Amino acid sequence: MVSCSVLSNRPLNREVTPLPTLKELKQVNKTVYDILARAAYKYRSGDDFGAQKEINIQSKAWSAIPNAFGNEFIPLHTYDSGLVNLHMIRVCHYGYPITRLAFQEINYGRYQVISGNGTGDVVLRLGRFDYRFSNTGDLIEFK
């Protein structure tokens, strides 16, 4: 297990620029859309709404993290033969907040429950990291 409790001291891109819609992203940058869609549809084959929602979340992360697909933390968040979870890079290394529910939604089909029954802290494993959430759903730590 990789320990990574230190956040990057590099700020997120916080410029307020409108993000492209999924349709616009597909037209303007089909390569990025195809990469994000491949990951989303792999785990949501019969759920277009869920897949499109995931693509939207991942595209926001893609536009917010430094160097996008060239980000230094990509090797820590790569799974399934090259798929990358950009949103979790944003969470883990740039301090973007996430709740247990949001974690479970964005990582649908990809995480394992390590411990917890819902009445206390819950630990979920995704790739190289274990994420501990409080009983109220707040992320406490990851390592």
Question: How would you characterize this protein structure?
Answer:
With 143 residues, this protein is an alpha+beta fold. The protein has one domain. Helices cover 38% and strands 15% of the residues. The chain is built from five helices and six strands, in the order αααββααββββ. Strands 3-4-5-6 form a four-stranded antiparallel beta sheet, with no helix packed on it. Strands 1-2 form a two-stranded antiparallel ribbon. β4 and β5 form a beta hairpin. α1 packs across α2 and α2 crosses α3. The termini are close together.
User: Rg to the nearest angstrom?
Assistant: 15 Å
- List low-confidence stretches: 1-9, 13-17
The main pleated sheet reads as: 4 strands, antiparallel
Strand content: 15-25%
Shape: globular
Number of strands: 6
* Percentage of residues assigned to helices: 25-40%
Quaternary structure of the protein = single chain
* First-residue to last-residue Cα separation: 7 Å
Number of helices, counting only DSSP H or I runs of 4 residues or more: 5
Q: Provide the succession of SSEs.
A: HHHEEHHEEEE
Number of domains: 1
Mean pLDDT: 83
Coarse structural class? alpha+beta
User: How are the strands ordered across the major sheet?
Assistant: 3-4-5-6
